[in-house]
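Posted in: Structural Biology > Protein-Ligand Complexes

Title: Requesting predicted complex, glutamic acid in pocket

I'd be grateful if someone could produce the 3D structure tokens for the following input. Sequence and ligand are given below.
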Amino acid sequence: MEKIVVRFAPSPTGFLHIGGARTALFNYLFARHHSGMFRLRIEDTDKNRSRQEFTDQILSAMAWLGLKPDGEIIFQSERTEYYRDAVEKLLATGKAYRCFCTREEIEARRGTDPGWKYDRKCASLSEDEINENINAGKSFVVRLKIPETVVQFKDMVRGDMRFDSKEFEDFIIVRSDGSPIYHLTVVADDYDMGITHVIRGDDHLSNTPKQIFLYRALGIPAPEFAHIPLILGPDKKRLSKRHGATSVEEYRRMGFLPEALTNFIALLGWNPGDDREIMGMEELVREFSIERISGNAAVFDFEKALWLNSRYIAALPDNELVDIFIELYRNKGVNIEMSERIIRIANLLRPRVKTTVELWDAGVFFFKQPQAYDEKGVRKHFSPENTVKILEADADLIQSCEPFIEKELETRLRAMAEREGEKAARFIHPLRLALTGSTASPGIFETIVLIGRDECVRRIENAVRFIQTKKGRE
Ligand code: GLU
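-- Reply #1 --
Done. Output follows.
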């Protein structure tokens, strides 16, 4: 079998978003599955809209997702000469022609007919007429001469496609400023790069017949095509900013793991043929096939993305989790080092978060005393008459507990509650609020140990002061 070569061909006019990432991923998986090549081509011919920062961003988002391209990256902006050669060839063989009609002339001939197509006025200009126009400094575009024909191809996702050339006019392939248009650059490059399969978004389906006309005019074979269906938001409208985060970068910043995001994106319009949902890159490569891409639009489900992410967080090896944890905290100004304690804290928080960023809110109290107390919690747990006494008893217990381990803390606290004829919860709720500022936390005894004896006592003293001041004000 011939070697499979595919490409991802983004225009650097914006961030890489979910749709683009999916196109890249499907190409990548297809290439890897068949031991083929996954090429990257930056389509930066539109000088006004293309930006280096977007190219950089696309490259870093792809690297983050693990989509490493093979071979050199091709930049269309560096290939002007090559496109010119292709156009010269088309002009020389009479497959394309220069058109000197001005916009006004065309508008006048079009009139109000919405179905009007370019009338080929310039298709039959003689060599002399062409030279005369050029010498007179008239500007021109180049149009492709579309033969009367029917274009048929079998799209690997959409099935049999048929387009009648009557529906098309002799479309422009070079603008009056000499710049080639997208259809020409894509066809020239796909051929030159040896692309065997073009896997891209459905929005390009209507471009394909035009590109096939070009392949034929250039006398070169067309690749196979697979057009993947749109991604819709939960409201069944095309996925857009309105639906929330759409760029890969945003997901990265929100605390998604790259493996979780690739897994999620892979399932947008593709499935392994059974109900597997958690699939790492290796498994995706092994299972991927174009036949399993659905012809229906995929619906984006953010909750599912979160769920997958939480599963990947749950499965992260300790050292990776801790690295992420330490980096997150350092970025927020809390300098911590790898230690047994950090490993325990990170593991304690792991099942409680859906994104890595949540590790901050969920765990900052281990390193900083609470800046405020949850209001509802204050009403419920700090307000009863004997709360101060209870907290002081907690502090004494923590102060004197030996060994300072969870089990011992628990036994002693429960015994104390029993002696006082109270429920253990009565000693635990205000304590949790005093230590964490919140009414929810990991198990209280483990939390006490991980905050540390002296720090716990300090925080209880602070809470007592807070309660007394509050009482004083009332
Ligand atoms: N540059 C085009 C885009 O970003 C893709 C062209 C193609 O895949 O053929 O939409």
